[in-house]
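Hello Y.,

Per our agreement to keep a running log of every chain we model this quarter, I'm adding this entry. I've kept the format consistent with earlier entries: sequence first, then predicted structure.
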Amino acid sequence: MERPPGFLIKKTAIICYTSISIIIALVLFVCVVVSYDDLDDVLQKAHEQHPEIPVVYDKRMVFVYISSMCGIQIAFSLIGLLGALDECYALSVIYLALTFLDLMSSIALTAFHPFLKLHVAANVIVLLISCSFIKDLRKLMKRQHSINPLDSVE
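Predicted structure for the entry above:
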C-alpha cells in the first residue's frame, strides 16, 4: 500500500529519537552503577554548589531514583520505537501522550535547570512529528479499511 509523502522520514525520525533516548538512559544507568561508591562525594559537591539541595539524600535513595527514572525512560522509548516499527496506531498514540507528559514536566523544570530547554525543544519536535505520523497512520488505516471493508482495522 502506498504511503503518504514523508511517512518514511517521520517513521525514521521517531525510531532515531527513541533509540537515542534508550542509549542515553542506558549510559546514565551504567555511569551511576560504576560511580556508586563516589555518589556521596558527588552529593556533597552538589550541596556546596546549590545549598537548596539537602545533604540528607542517601546514595541508595539517589541510586534507586535514577535507576527507576532510567527504566521509565527506556519503557517510554520502547513504546515509541515499537509503535513506529510496527506502524501501530495505538502504541503511537500512547507514545504521543507520554511525550506530551514529558514535555509538560520538562517545561515545569526549566525554571530550575535551564539546560532542560534543549529537552523541551526536542520534545516539541518529536511531538509534532508524532502527531503527523499518527495522522498518516490514520489515513492508511482508513484507506486499508475502504479497500478491504471485511477486515478488521488494527
